[in-house]
Write a structure and sequence with these properties.
By secondary structure, the chain is mainly α. The protein has two domains: 68 residues; 163 residues, no CATH class. The chain is built from ten helices and two strands, in the order αβααβααααααα. Strands 1-2 form a two-stranded antiparallel ribbon. The protein is flat and about 55 Å long.
Length: 253
């Protein structure tokens, strides 16, 4: 997705688009900084007498960060048009997690709370929907193109659905590892969980590195359709396994 953001997304904004980006970027930068500043101020009030030097150093470092933030935002507002860095889109995952996690947790606490396998299946389907957004956005990219100017809304939608999928899979998976694994094996199984994530990231990087070969032979839309259909099919398969998995869980919820 970083490659898509760098080479295939229209990241030059001006006019209304630039104004909207300025406001959004300011909010997602300033609000967390204000929250952290408030927490640090409360912490200083309680620990300054005992750790005065450490607090002074920490406060000075944080003031430098505030200076960099203000300088960055002032430069952003002074420009007539902005080019969004490709790496900027990476913050959308954290932003959507913070914004959507309370909503998802409310669903888990309600009568709509589905079984673990259904949650995992829905998470995979949401992952596929995210790639479907990229496939739709890439439909205008000709075969073999090295660069393009696709609207950034498709990338934002992809991050949104991928983050929702993560919220359906990751916390639920970790929870059920602790519930279903014998106590003496919990540490090992948590290690295997994160090892599987590491292997998945490695495979994703390797497959992503083949993007030029695949798009040269087919097109960018086909590349993303592969990642649309596979997780969706796996999601449906996992949901269909619900009765079998529920029986193996011996009543654990």
């Amino acid at each position: 997705m970083t490659i898509f953001a760098k080479d295939y997304t229209d990241r030059i904004l001006e006019g209304t688009g630039k104004v909207i980006f300025n406001v959004v970027n300011t909010l997602i930068t300033i609000i967390p900084m204000l929250i952290i500043s408030f927490v640090l101020a409360k912490l200083f009030g309680q620990t300054f007498k005992k750790y005065s030097m450490g607090n002074i150093v920490l406060a000075f470092g944080f003031l430098l960060i505030w200076g960099l933030v203000i300088y960055m935002l002032s430069q952003q507002y002074a420009e007539e048009k902005s080019e969004i860095p490709a790496t900027w889109f990476g913050i959308l995952n954290s932003l959507f997690i913070i914004s959507l996690a309370p909503l998802v947790s409310k669903i888990w606490e309600s009568k709509l709370n589905p079984p673990a396998t259904v949650k995992n299946g829905i998470g995979m389907i949401l992952l596929g929907i995210g790639f479907a957004a990229l496939a739709i956005g890439a439909s205008s990219i000709p075969q073999g193109a090295k660069v393009a100017q696709v609207s950034l809304i498709w990338l934002v939608l992809a991050y949104l659905f991928h983050t929702l999928g993560e919220l359906f899979i990751s916390p639920v998976g970790l929870s059920y590892v602790s519930k279903l694994v014998p106590g003496r094996m919990i540490g090992i199984m948590f290690g295997i969980w994160y090892l599987a994530i590491a292997i998945g990231n490695k495979l994703a990087g390797s497959i992503g590195g083949e993007i030029d070969k695949i798009t040269a032979k087919y097109d960018m839309q086909t590349f993303f359709l592969i990642f649309t259909l596979i997780p969706m099919a796996l999601g449906v398969f996992i949901i269909l396994l619900t009765p079998v998995i529920r029986k193996l869980m011996h009543g654990i919820r």
